[in-house]
Specification:
Oligomer: single chain
Helix content: 25-40%
Number of strands: 4
Shape: globular
CATH architecture: Alpha-Beta Barrel
Distance between the termini: 31 Å
Structural class: alpha/beta
Order of helices and strands: EHHEHEHEHH
Radius of gyration: 15 Å
Strand content: 5-15%
CATH superfamily: Aldolase class I
């Protein structure tokens, strides 16, 4: 990949943060409203997309265009521990709202069998049979 092929991605609101966390740092907006404001700013600055909660993807794509990329942490298979993530979705739900890239970390890396866990996730979303 050359420099010209690189993507510029901004971070909106961490998926581990909720309204009370934002209030502690002086932000009075709801997480979804703040994420939208930051995504619009990223789009105006000609960035390619944002890291955001899957809960915000539909609104952000509506405001910034379907080609504006969404990278979403906080993706958890059904039954997986949330850890510090508070605004989570399953892989199936994330696909349904239009997420471009899912970040599924600890449910895989903390698994006793990461390869099997990944295969189960891929199977659950129809990527493998």
């Amino acid at each position: 990949m050359s420099f010209c092929d690189s993507l510029l991605i901004a971070v909106t609101i961490l998926t581990s943060m909720v309204q009370a966390d934002l209030h502690q740092i002086g932000i009075t907006q709801l997480p979804a409203d703040r994420a939208l404001q930051l995504a619009k700013l990223a789009k105006e600055c000609e960035l390619n997309g944002v890291v955001c909660s899957a809960h915000e993807v539909a609104t952000l794509k509506s405001a910034c265009g379907s080609d504006f990329l969404s990278i979403t942490p906080g993706i958890r298979p059904i039954g997986a521990e949330a850890y510090d993530q508070r605004r989570i979705m399953t892989p199936e739900q994330a696909i349904n709202v239009g997420v471009d890239y899912m970040v599924i970390g600890r449910p895989i890396t903390h698994s006793a069998d990461p390869v099997l866990t990944l295969a189960q996730i891929n199977r659950s979303i129809g990527w493998i049979k």
